[in-house]
Amino acid sequence: MISSYLLLFTVAFGAATLLPFYSEILLVSQLREGLHPGWLWLAATTGNTLGAGVNWWMGAKLVQYADRRWFPARKADIQRAQNWFTRYGQWTLLMSWMPIGGDALTVVGGMMKVPAPAFFILVGIGKGVRYALVIIGLAAF
């Protein structure tokens, strides 16, 4: 049974990075198998938040290579993202749960040097609420 929670943790971790994983599908499947919703929520939220930490780290460390030809983003795109983040602030990390753009927010959070404690608290809240809504939504049906 612990392996089921570890599997969800791992898939949620991967889903928070740029890998094409979908943790909600596994979460719903495991809920339907009768696994404990609280433990599933904890595994998914923790894995997804720590996976977002990989993006934060990449943003903080790899932005120094933005002028290289092989870098995947153009300087203009990076500047636009930084300007947007400066305008709306680190509170935007609460939106990191979004399927489109959420991963990019965590990378920009690293580029903008958001301190780790603030990053993990804000991202953890956003991702925790998302998984809670999935669990509550499934319980309603």
UniProtKB/TrEMBL annotation:
A Pfam cross-reference name: VTT_dom
Recorded superkingdom: Bacteria
GO cellular component, one term: plasma membrane
InterPro entries to which the protein is assigned, alphabetical: DedA_domain, VTT_dom
Transmembrane segments: 39-59, 118-140
Keywords: Membrane, Transmembrane, Transmembrane helix
Sequence ranges assigned to domain VTT in this UniProt record: 36-135
Listed name of the protein: Membrane protein YqaA with SNARE-associated domain
